[in-house]
Amino acid sequence: MNVKPFTIALDGPAAAGKGTIARALSEHFSMPHLDTGLLYRAVGYKVSQGKNPLQAAIDLTEGDFANPSQLRTRIAGEHASQVAAMPEVRAQLLEFQRNFARRNGGAILDGRDIGTVICPDAEVKLFVTADDRTRAQRRFDELWPNDPTLTYDAVFADLQKRDARDASRDDAPMAQADDALLLDTTKLAIDAAVAAAVRFVQEKRT
Ligand code: C5P
To answer: What's the pTM value of the predicted model, to 2 decimals?
Structure first.
């Protein structure tokens, strides 16, 4: 068993498939996985209930994102993206993510700035993307069963706005690290995308 730190960093825009790939890698390699978007979603949720953003980040515990269904809504994504543009919130969440990443045996983190800012020395970096319409359709299919009033156009507009904010903020914008492998999932079935990611990780582990 690998007891040294071995970090797998997955970044990319919303609904590109990085969460699904991260969970599959976690199962395949028996490594713990942190969906870092949940940290920002949990802070955003508390802020939407009236809490100060920095205080919400300081007070965050793992229990706040242990039951993520209420954090995976469309509105929670918007709140998350707003607090994620605040440098003091990002600074407060940094150490937790780095500690998670460097645990013995390795860890998988997915987000927007893992390969660039949180873990620039990660052993494996992947930037997962897909074209805008494909991502919007996937997110619509995921959210619609719980919100039948939702329209595809609204989801598409949300994603465009959120991606633009995430990519243009001054502090830790969403970006592909120079040494990250680009995985475009537009035309890849999920099994093929996972298989490509598994192969890439295996090459780096040997
Ligand atoms: O990945 P997810 O869609 O759950 O992320 C929600 C929001 O959290 C993103 O739109 C982004 O603003 C923010 N985020 C971030 N950095 C990360 C992960 C998520 O800024 N590492």
So the answer is: 0.95
